[in-house]
Amino acid sequence: MNSPTARSARPASSSAITATSALAGSDFLRLLAAWGLAAPAGGAGAAAAFGQRLSEWFSWTDAIALSGALGGPAEPVPAGLLTAAERLAVETRELARVRQQLLGHIRGEPAGARSRPAARVAVSPHVQARLAAEQLGDEGFAPHRQRCLAVHKAMDNAIGALRQRVRDAVAAASPALAHLATLDVVMEDVVGGRERALLAQLPGLLAQRYERLQAEGTEDLNPRFQRELQQLLEAELDFRLHPVEGLLDALRQAATH
């Protein structure tokens, strides 16, 4: 007979494989691989190590917590004023608002422009590159690092609040979805801290990329790197919004069935 611990560990193993596959196939890791900072999906090196480390996060104690969230009794759902479809519409708009706000932060847009995308004035790539070069001057990688850290802080604050908000909406929709919301709390607790620890290594990886381009004598180094950093941060934003989108997908299914 299998031990209780062994039985409890199975859901975590399955979840770890799914999460690792999603990580390996993300645009975020593909960009790092293209820059030589991680191996391509399925290969050896930093990308494979990243996925392996994610799977190792699901220790047997975490597996017990996941098993409890999957198999325990659902909490009663409080009566709400909104239907599942109405909650879905509200939270979908909130996701779009947060995404647009963070994209504006990544792209260096003024705060007012982030809420009025139609009012933006187009600026040619040539002018953008010249302005970037003037802004960065000869300070090297330091401004890029500060930009990366500032965007990470903005993502942490905005996405954390959004995920809790969407989770609350999901939990109020039905007993089954309340169970899913409980599982998401456990997953965020198990994975979130470790994920942030790995993402904290990103400025160091970017410094390696900057130094490599510098050693190669790349022309327009700072404007080029600024564009690359923007591309990577936008991919990271998509990566970090996946759990929220998953919750909304569950709410969408409840609203249409």
What do these coordinates show?
The protein has 257 residues and is an all-alpha fold. The protein has eleven helices and no strands. Helix 1 runs antiparallel to helix 3 and helix 5 runs antiparallel to helix 8. The longest helix has 36 residues. The protein is elongated and about 60 Å long.
Averaged pLDDT, please? 75
Number of helices: 11
Low-confidence stretches: 1-22, 39-44, 114-127
Cα distance, first to last residue? 40 Å
Shape descriptor reads elongated
Which H/E pattern describes the elements? HHHHHHHHHHH
According to DSSP, the number of beta strands is 0
Q: Major beta sheet, specifics?
A: none
**Oligomer designation:** single chain
Q: Into which percentage range does the β-strand content fall?
A: under 5%
Please state the structural category: mainly alpha
What's the short story on this structure?
This protein is mainly alpha-helical. It has helices at 4-24, 27-34, 46-56, 60-71, 84-106, 111-114, 125-136, 142-171, 175-199, 202-215, 221-256.
